[in-house]
Design brief:
Layout lengths: L13 H20 L6 E2 L2 H7 L4 H26 L3 H23 L4 H5 L3 E5 L12 H19 L10 E2 L10 H6 L4 E4 L2 H4 L10 E2 L5 E4 L2 H4 L37 H26 L25 H15 L6 H5 L5 E2 L28 H17 L5 H10 L3 H8 L3 H21 L18
Parallel strand pairs: 1-2, 2-3, 4-6, 5-7
Antiparallel strand pairs: 5-6
Helix pairs in contact: 1-4, 3-4, 10-11, 13-14, 13-16, 14-16, 15-16
């Protein structure tokens, strides 16, 4: 989730955060509280927003005023047009928001505090693509700020941090590892489909890098059952995210007709059965010769489950049930790494500059290609300018640089998602850094009031 708190409202801006809380984060919290052994990575930039001043109040107002009104307006309009079933579905979906309001009230508005006991992994300060950074100082700032913020927030209330660090966009290069190790990182996930091929048993065994960091391959074949153009969310009976009413409600299914929620939930359960059965079969087929039988890591953006894929949260809860029913052990990654002996990573990367990601083509092209080349070069130039400023780089300049380095702006432009908003935000942070460098250490942090509050100059 990019830093949208305080940066715009409908259709782009804070609404993204409010919708993710409603459809993804609160339902996931319920599953974690019920004991599901899931590995939760909370990115620092999301935490920055969840604990910002006034966030709880604005979230309640968005649901209780804006969403209450828009659901009833769209339902009224559909009914007036003779679409009674679609109208009924819009009103049914309002119940999601009502339940979220009640749950949020039970938490006294402190969602971050409720998630704290389950926060195992952290990430870089603002989800920067680390191999694209220009300087050692820039890399260190992203990594240490992310780890410092995690320790400051969760060191007392959550489980002890065991060194899990999510590489943004799974972007890894061997030269990153010494910096990660020096910062206390013990494990990261990597995407090695291009290196191993999709059906290699090597995806099911952790690796040990030269600096001592365990590199855990994500299992693309398992993930693709969910996260691909032909994955479960594309089924005709699931709710269509892209077909919406005037106020962005979604009463249609992927097949083009009206959405049937009961049918979709039954399908989600069937897909959970299928997912667990296929994962078991893959482990049995490829993991027989591996210590412990192999480890299949399915890593997903949380917002996929509930926000992008409306039934995704229900599917995940059914997967947890099916793992118990079918005898597939579901284990948190930190716990698994204590049981699985890593193989040497030597030879996996042919040279220390080789980069792998989970982006398109498995490389950096999503964030560094002709369509976003200007952004990529601008980020590097800004980082070099900040380094030249030395002691003249104050808190405002550092925060603007960190915000500029977010992977989200180039991702949105590359994928054609809210491109004007992404470019506007990028240009604002670029100009904000320039202004901060001119004004010196006394420059105001402005709307980045709660971004990277634990960053050290």
């Amino acid at each position: 989730m990019p830093y949208v708190e305080g940066f715009g409202t409908w259709p782009f801006g804070e609404e993204w955060l409010w919708e993710a809380i409603t459809s993804s984060y609160l339902p996931l919290l319920g599953l974690l509280e019920a004991g599901a052994p899931l590995t939760l990575s909370l990115t620092p930039v999301l935490c920055d927003q969840l604990e910002g001043d006034g966030v709880a109040e604005r979230y309640r107002a968005f649901l209780d005023v804006v969403r209450r009104h828009t659901h009833h307006e769209d339902a009224r309009g559909l009914r007036a047009g003779g679409h009674d079933a679609l109208s009924d579905e819009v009103l049914r979906s309002w119940g999601d928001y009502e339940r979220a309001l009640l749950r949020f009230a039970e938490l006294d508005g402190d969602l971050l505090g409720a998630l704290a006991p389950y926060a195992q992994w952290t990430s870089s300060a603002t989800h920067a693509v680390l191999p694209l950074l220009a300087t050692d100082a820039g890399l260190d700032a992203q990594v240490t700020t992310g780890i410092d913020s995690h320790r400051a927030r969760f060191g007392r209330v959550g489980a002890d941090w065991r060194g899990g660090f999510w590489l943004p966009e799974c972007a890894h290069a061997p030269w990153l590892e010494p910096t990660l190790a020096d910062a206390g990182v013990h494990a990261s996930c990597v995407e090695l489909t291009n290196a191993f091929g999709p059906d290699s048993p090597r995806h099911l065994q952790p690796l040990l890098g030269d600096a001592g960091v365990r590199l855990v391959p994500i299992d693309r074949a398992t993930m693709s059952l969910v996260w691909s153009d032909s994955g479960y969310p594309a089924h005709r009976d699931y709710r269509d995210y892209h077909h919406h009413t005037i106020h962005h409600h979604n009463p249609w299914a992927n097949h083009g007709g009206g959405y049937d929620h009961a049918r979709a939930l039954a399908l989600a359960r069937a897909h959970a059965v299928d997912f667990v059965a296929r994962t078991r079969a893959r482990l049995e087929r490829l993991g027989g010769g591996l210590p412990g039988g192999g480890l299949a890591v399915c890593a997903l953006d949380t917002e996929l489950l509930g926000h992008w894929w409306y039934e995704g949260g229900a599917w995940l809860s059914y997967v947890v049930e099916e793992c118990a029913s079918q005898g597939l052990e579901l284990v948190r990654l930190d716990d698994a790494l204590e049981r699985f002996e890593p193989a040497p990573a030597a030879g996996v990367w042919r040279d220390p500059e080789q980069v792998s990601t989970w982006g398109e083509h498995g490389d950096l092209s999503t964030w560094s290609s002709p369509v976003v080349a200007e952004m990529a070069f601008a980020i590097r130039a800004a980082e070099l300018a900040a380094e030249r400023a030395g002691s003249g780089l104050g808190p405002a300049g550092l925060r603007q640089l960190l915000a500029l380095q977010s992977s989200d702006w180039a991702f949105m432009v590359s994928r054609g998602l809210a491109v004007p908003y992404a470019r506007q935000r990028f240009d604002e942070h670029r100009q904000g850094l320039s202004d901060a460098l001119c004004q010196g250490r006394d420059a105001s942090v402005g709307p980045l009031r709660n971004l990277a509050v634990h960053a050290r100059l």
